[in-house]
């Protein structure tokens, strides 16, 4: 499990275009790492489009946005193209990074238990340390919360 103030776990994952990203690529920049359950679902689409709409503000603040789910690269490509997302969506089909960040959890819907990503956002500072963790994110107004935390 990650903790605020501790070094963020490293990763090496492909985005929707097949480009490989690792945390060390972003040293010197702030990173908003948002974990979401599934491409093209209502909450995940709302969250992605909110980050898209505020993308210029994040960019001005020397901040990179990276979305992460267990969906495959092709699914990310379709999702990104459909909604014009200007940031990478990282594919972690092995769930290694998702588990390293502690966001793969037992969930419950309509009385059924299942495993999946708990919607979580992690802000990582310019030195690679975890600055803030937002657990069990509610997508409405979340982008504004993240922008406030970056100040």
Molecular structure report:
The chain is of the alpha/beta class. It has a single domain (12-150), classed as Glutaredoxin. 28% of the residues lie in helices and 29% in strands. The chain has five helices and nine strands; from the N terminus they run βββααβαβαββββα. The protein has helices at 42-53, 55-60, 73-83, 96-100, 142-150; strands at residues 12-14, 20-22, 30-35, 63-69, 89-91, 104-109, 112-117, 120-124, 130-134. The protein has a five-stranded mixed β-sheet. Strands 1-2 form a two-stranded antiparallel sheet. The protein has a two-stranded antiparallel sheet with strand order 6-7. The longest helix has 12 residues, at 42-53. It starts with 11 loop residues before the first strand and ends with a helix.
Q: Can I get a quick summary?
A:
By secondary structure, the protein is an alpha/beta fold. Helices cover 28% and strands 29% of the residues.
The appropriate CATH architecture is: 3-Layer(aba) Sandwich
Cα gyration radius (Å): 14 Å
Mean pLDDT: 94
Number of strands: 9
Number of helices: 5
In helices, the fraction of residues equals 25-40%
In whole angstroms, how far apart are the ends?
Answer: 25 Å
CATH names the topology as Glutaredoxin
- Strand proportion, as a percent range, falls in 25-35%
What's the layout of helices and strands?
Elements: E1 12-14, E2 20-22, E3 30-35, H1 42-53, H2 55-60, E4 63-69, H3 73-83, E5 89-91, H4 96-100, E6 104-109, E7 112-117, E8 120-124, E9 130-134, H5 142-150
Parallel strand pairs: 3-4, 4-5
Antiparallel strand pairs: 1-2, 3-8, 6-7, 8-9
């Amino acid at each position: 499990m990650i903790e605020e103030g501790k070094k963020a776990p490293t990763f090496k994952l492909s985005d929707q275009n097949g480009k490989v990203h690792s945390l060390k690529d972003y040293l010197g920049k702030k990173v908003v790492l948002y974990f979401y359950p599934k491409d093209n679902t209502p909450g995940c689409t709302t969250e992605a489009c909110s980050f898209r709409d505020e993308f210029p503000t994040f960019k001005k603040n020397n901040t990179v946005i990276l979305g992460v789910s267990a969906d495959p690269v092709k699914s990310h490509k379709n999702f990104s193209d459909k909604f014009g997302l200007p940031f990478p969506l990282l594919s972690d089909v092995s769930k290694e990074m998702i588990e390293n960040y502690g966001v793969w959890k037992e969930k419950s819907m309509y009385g059924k238990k299942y495993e999946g990503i708990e919607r979580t956002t992690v802000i990582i500072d310019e030195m690679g340390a975890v600055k803030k963790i937002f657990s069990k994110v509610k997508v409405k107004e979340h982008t504004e919360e993240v922008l406030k935390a970056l100040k």
